[in-house]
């Protein structure tokens, strides 16, 4: 089947790109275009309902890796759901964009949580990921999308209010993904989220241990969760300015937050292109936070797609 759709795929993923900015697939490992990474077969052997990719926000490479895999599965005929870490309050706008034609899509997508964001979640690379997968959907491939980040209603907020620490947010994330997954018979649900939420063991920041999203998601179906590993580079994030001193400056304000490319130290060293490694299931691995990792290589910061006017002027 792959050979029959390759001309269409090149048109959908590359031919429609505008200007010099690289598309999602062009940013994936040098010789990849709409391919599953090495090691994906180990995920398929586990046959999870949900595959969670715990990323570092604000890189070009993580959305590119995720997008290439999603493209490969969809063009192989799988029915897939993409879950992105945007507020469920933006999901209606996201669905409107997803169901629009190519001419209206980008403007509608900007209204679905991108406009005005300064952090790495609303990055150019994330925007390109969704745009490119929408082009595949318009070409007839079975790709759906959902926004799941946190409570989407007061009822949902109250439902999980009894949980300690960050538990209510994590539980709402998991329920939102699970609810979206029930709307159709999906071959696979792919979740792209910050790697804190992707953990499968309780976390305690001192306000009571809570179950992260991926751990909660296990109540709705089998979960395989992968942590990101990368070589040194940069990521786009919002951090307190280096000279901020709470003793003299008090509580931080927006003016004390600096958004931009920040150094990111290496979390792994592999002299090879992007790949997945799944850890063997043993008694010793039962208490680990992840089922494996995905390797990106060196990372580079991806700036916001549609920052505020103040951010543009900085």
Secondary-structure topology with pairs:
Elements: H1 2-15, H2 24-27, H3 40-46, E1 50-55, H4 61-75, E2 80-84, H5 91-98, H6 102-114, H7 124-138, E3 143-147, H8 154-159, H9 167-181, E4 188-194, H10 213-217, E5 223-231, E6 233-240, H11 246-249, E7 257-264, E8 275-278, E9 292-298, H12 309-313
Parallel strand pairs: 1-4, 1-5, 2-3, 2-4, 5-9
Antiparallel strand pairs: 6-7, 8-9
Helix pairs in contact: 4-7, 5-6, 6-7
Summarize the structure.
This protein has twelve helices and nine strands. The protein is of the alpha/beta class and 314 residues long.
Descriptive terms for the model:
12 helices, alpha/beta, two-stranded antiparallel sheet, seven-stranded mixed beta sheet, signal, disordered C terminus, ChaN family lipoprotein, 314 residues
């Amino acid at each position: 089947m792959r050979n029959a759709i390759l001309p269409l795929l090149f048109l959908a993923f590359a031919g429609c790109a505008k200007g010099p900015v690289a598309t999602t697939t062009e940013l994936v490992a040098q010789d990849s275009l709409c391919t599953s990474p090495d090691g994906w077969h180990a995920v398929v052997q586990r046959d999870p309902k949900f595959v969670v990719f715990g990323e570092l926000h604000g890189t070009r490479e993580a959305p590119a890796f995720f997008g290439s895999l999603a493209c490969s599965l969809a063009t192989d005929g799988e029915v897939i759901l993409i879950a992105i870490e945007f507020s469920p309050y933006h999901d209606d706008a996201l669905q409107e964009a997803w169901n629009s034609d190519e001419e209206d899509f980008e403007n509608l997508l900007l209204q679905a949580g991108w406009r005005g964001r300064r952090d790495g979640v609303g990055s150019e690379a994330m925007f390109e990921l969704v745009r490119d997968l929408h082009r595949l959907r318009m070409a007839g491939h079975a790709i759906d999308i959902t926004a799941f980040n946190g409570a989407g209603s007061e009822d949902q907020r109250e439902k999980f209010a009894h949980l300690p620490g960050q538990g209510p947010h994590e539980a709402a994330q998991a329920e939102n993904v699970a609810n979206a997954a029930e709307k159709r018979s999906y071959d696979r649900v792919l979740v792209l989220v910050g790697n804190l939420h992707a953990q499968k063991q309780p976390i305690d920041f001192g306000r009571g241990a809570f179950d992260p999203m991926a751990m909660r998601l296990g109540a709705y179906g089998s979960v395989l969760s992968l942590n990101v590993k990368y070589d040194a580079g940069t990521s786009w994030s919002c951090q307190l300015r280096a000279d901020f001193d709470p003793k003299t400056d008090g509580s931080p304000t927006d003016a004390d937050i600096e958004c931009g490319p920040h150094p990111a130290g290496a979390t792994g060293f592999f002299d090879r292109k992007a790949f997945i490694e799944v850890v063997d299931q043993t008694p010793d691995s039962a208490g680990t936070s992840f089922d494996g990792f995905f390797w990106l290589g060196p990372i580079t910061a991806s700036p916001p797609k549609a920052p505020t006017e103040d951010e543009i002027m900085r």
